[in-house]
Amino acid sequence: MAALLERESDLKSLGIATEGEAGFKLCLERKPDLVLLDVSLPKINGLDLIYQLRKFLPNLKIVILSGHRDPYTIWQVAQADVHGFINQGTPVKAMLEAIRRVAYGNTFFCPEYKAVMQDWLTRPEAFQNILSQREIEVMRYAAEGLSDERIAKMLKVSILTVFVQRRNIRVKLRIHNEREMMAYARVWGLGKAFN
Fold first, then answer.
1. Backbone phi and psi for residue 63, each to the nearest 5 degrees, phi listed first
2. What percent of the chain has pLDDT over 70?
3. What dihedral angle (degrees, nearest 10) is formed by the CA atoms of 181, 121, 64, 53?
């Protein structure tokens, strides 16, 4: 992508980072107008990196360039208030046009992003319409196969709290067992963590 940008007269790459921590340092050092991020980055994931960058570079334009198109990821990106989302499979010409649109003050969200926002996340059974933020976290970790004890340590709550939240998740979603909960998590993209 950096090589492609270098060929364009109105766009220039100021650097590349392969993990979030290096990306953060690079942005603070170079102060770009726009940054392309994937949500899956080592050390600091792209979504956490957005919130850190916003503190120090509030006018930075942020575009997600990712292959993740599950409802949970799209919902997280929408919460992060980015300027664009480009699917990694987008043809180069369209990708450059999207970057230009954002660089010149507009937004760009690929059709796959819009479809998930309109077709999935507006459904009454969508996780964010039913579960609290903490219940979403518990469900994600449970879907990763973590024990209640491990989840409790990660979230800094008691094991009883995790047990109660898992029960509340089943009640709210009207599911009866762990297998049904895992199936729901898989459908909505809640079964994979980026860290």
1. -125, 130
2. 98
3. -80
- Scanning the structure block, which residue is given the tokens 């609290």? 132
pLDDT at position 147 over 90: yes
CATH number of the domain that 169 lies in?
A: 1.10.10.10
CA dihedral 162, 164, 167, 169 (to 10 degrees): -70
- If one counts the domains in the chain, the total is 2
Same domain, 61 and 133: no
Q: Are residues 163 and 136 in the same domain?
A: yes
Residues 68 and 134 in one domain: no
Radius of gyration over alpha carbons of the chain, in Å?
19
Tell me the torsion sign for CA atoms 30, 35, 36, 42: positive
**Average pLDDT score, the chain:** 92
